[in-house]
Predict the 3D structure of the following.
Amino acid sequence: MKTFRLFILLATLLSTVTLSLTLLSTQAEAQMASSQFRMKFIMNRRTNMLKQQEFLVKQSKDIMPGEIESMINDALSPDKTFEERMYFLDNANAMATMYKHEFGDDSFLAKIQTIQTMELSKQEAEAIEQSRWFDYEGLRGSILMKEHLPQMEEKGQNAVVYPHWLHQIFFTCKTCHADNMSMKKGSNDFSHSEFKEGKQCGACHNAKISFDSEDPARCDSCHIREPQLVQRYAAIDHEAVKATALRVSSVWDPDKLEEGVMPLDATGAVDWLKLETIGASKPSPSILPEAASEALRDTFIVFRVKSEEPFNDVLFSHKVHTTRVNCGTCHANNRIFKPELGSNKLSMAEMATGTQCGTCHGKVSFPLTNCQRCHSLKPGATPKGALVAAPATAK
């Protein structure tokens, strides 16, 4: 059984990598040319423009070594996920292959293939380590927190299994991530000393809002010992969730659910927007009922898709997003997007690396592969009152 589950995990991993791959310098002038080359190379590759690709490579002999090295460096950046690393390495491999074909130099290709082999080996080891948690890790937004695993094991405890999806029932993203915790996975150094001061998890787990994080009898509530003990979508305790929701001024009405089951989208993730639309859920924006909440921005933005692309245009709802996060989450100091209309050139290739919309989508929100969720507007249409971003969205 364990061998079968590991096989399924590795097969899923390979599928994820393959899917991710489909989505997607000395002078300032040379750096700009290199950047333009990368974009054109990836675009030509994605659209099978073979003649254009061959012409591009033949014209770019001088900048290709720097561009290949840049792709390798991006792949090895410590903040990259496995999928993101393989995305960069795959494109670097394609560049190096064409560089060898056109110019007879295979030094880059050997280097990249060695790195790819190492990354796959590391990921296989990680897959073996986490194989018994395979089913749980499939729940979008769920996190296995093991940064302090040696210290936990000294106390006879397992890693923390955090059900992000369960907390999303009670609170919007801004409740925790506006001030208390960073959204970036792995950037919060969780500790019980912080909890005792009412920070991090201790903001709620204080025996008032939720169970006390310092209660020895509740250790196994977070430090899960067996995968079968992890709560799943289908096994949710509606009465317990409803009682907690009432206590934190949110809403959970299981009677609004069809056959008592949480709605899932085409990718198997919880459809949070549908939950709210049918009136089954209304998460709270704060752990304090009297706390003032930032006003919602009720505007729509149309992002035009280039005419040669076989997709609808994108209709972006600010209200849907500001219900969950504050404006500064995306726009403070141009963190993810510049606030000026038309100043962001969106690209699926960029999103696939975990930037732009990919900062959340594919991690705690529905994945980029669920195309229709965003590309829902008939090409050229403009709903009344909607803003239109320019230039056109890059694909």
Remarks:
- The chain has three domains: 2-132, 140-282, 300-393.
